[in-house]
Amino acid sequence: MKQRGRRISKLLIDARNVTGTISAMERIDFSVIVAKAVFGEDGSRIMKVAIAGNEPLVDPARFAETVAVNRGAQAEVTLDLDEALKWLDM
C-alpha cells in the first residue's frame, strides 16, 4: 500500500502586490492550471483555492473564476484578502 502524506486542502494566492495586465487567453490558461491542481489522482476534488488581487489583474467580471469553476474547481477570486480567508474558512 502506498503511503500518502498530508494533502493541502486550502490554498490562498495573495496577488495583491502583482502589477500589470493579462490577456483573456492568459486568464483562461491560469484558470485551467488552477482547476487541474485541485483534483487528486483519483479525480476527487481535494483543494479549495482563493485568490486575492487588485484590478486590472483581477477583472471585475471574475472571468478567471468562472473558467475554473466551470471546470469543477472550488475557486474564489476577490479584491479583499479578508474575504478570501473567510471563503477558505481560515
Structure report:
It is a single chain. The protein has a 3-stranded parallel β-sheet with strand order 1-2-3, sandwiched between helices. 23% of the residues are buried. The mean pLDDT is 88. It has helices spanning 24-37, 63-70, 81-87; strands at residues 10-15, 48-53, 74-78. It is α/β, with parallel strands linked by helices. The protein contains 3 helices and 3 strands. The protein starts with 9 loop residues before the first strand and ends with a helix. The protein is 32% helix and 19% strand. The longest helix is centred in the middle third of the chain and has 14 residues, at 24-37. The protein has one domain (10-87): Oxidized Rhodanese, domain 1 (3-Layer(aba) Sandwich), CATH 3.40.250.
Top keywords for this entry?
alpha/beta; single chain; 3 helices; 3-stranded parallel β-sheet; Oxidized Rhodanese, domain 1; 90 residues
Concise structural overview:
The chain is 32% helix and 19% strand. It has 90 residues and is an alpha/beta fold.
Indicate the CATH class: Alpha Beta
Radius of gyration: 14 Å
Looking at the overall shape, the CATH architecture is: 3-Layer(aba) Sandwich
Percentage of β-strand residues = 15-25%
Structure annotation, total helices: 3
Average pLDDT for all residues: 88
**First-last Cα distance:** 33 Å
